[in-house]
Write a structure and sequence with these properties.
Structural class: alpha/beta
Distance between the termini: 10 Å
Number of strands: 8
Radius of gyration: 17 Å
Number of helices: 10
Shape: globular
Order of helices and strands: EEHHHHEHEHEHEHEHEH
Strand order of the largest sheet: 5-4-1-6-7-8
Helix content: 40-55%
């Protein structure tokens, strides 16, 4: 019997480009909370995909002040996220095609509070059965918990379902491996090909290429 496909999408760097929103919000918080950030845009971009508290710690914020910065970030991001975020090229088509191939959900480290307005803004929210965000799990990617919780809500059965995670960083691919599902790394986001190919044998240019690969895959 042919298995039903379940396709899990990462968000940032896979379906949307929120680089400007993220980077500008970090700088805003550094100024607001008077932190002398001596790093570069690249230092911030290299951490996209990790939870905010980890990003701030890696950028030099003391543990005792991290959550003040996270709160400041969220207050600012809420205001500017839509205007400074774009849907990646052919991402809408990728999600549409994915929804025709099987059941589709989102697994992101962004909180649902900010994810849902973006998905609705880009008119793709209705395609997704489940949207798992940071506040829905104890352990974010690369831990498998976000994937496992999503699959549990989708009544996943390994004998009935063929599951794929599509993401742009090693965090997505490690989580998929630890959850015992297959993954496709896409090159339209923040991960480098050398890093991505360490964690998956399937690499595509972007989300639409990944979905076309799945469409043509022989079971």
């Amino acid at each position: 019997m042919k298995k039903e496909k379940i396709i899990l999408f990462d968000l940032d760097g896979t379906l949307i480009d929120s680089t400007d929103a993220i980077v500008s919000t970090f700088y805003h918080t550094f100024k607001e909370l008077e932190f002398n950030f001596t790093g570069s845009d690249k230092n911030i971009k290299d951490l996209i995909g990790y939870p905010l508290d980890i990003m701030y710690k890696d950028l030099g914020i003391e543990d005792s002040k991290v959550w003040d910065f996270v709160d400041a970030y969220k207050n600012r991001y809420r205001v500017i996220s839509k205007e400074q975020t774009t849907l990646l090229e052919n991402a809408y088509e990728a999600v549409l095609l994915a929804s025709q191939l099987g059941r589709v959900s989102v697994v992101t480290t962004k909180t649902r509070m900010y994810t849902m307005p973006l998905l609705e803004h880009f008119n793709i929210a209705h395609f997704f059965e489940i949207v798992t965000g940071r506040e829905n799990v104890q352990n974010p990617k690369p831990h498998p918990e976000p994937i496992l919780i999503t699959l549990e809500q989708m009544n996943y059965n390994k004998d009935l379902h063929d599951v794929w995670m599509i993401g742009d960083t090693k965090l997505d691919l490690i989580a998929a491996r630890e959850a015992n599902i297959r993954s496709i790394g896409v090159l339209c986001g923040y991960g480098e090909i050398d890093e991505i190919q360490e964690y998956t044998q399937f690499i595509q240019k972007d989300a639409i290429s990944a979905i076309n690969f799945l469409k043509n895959l022989k079971d």
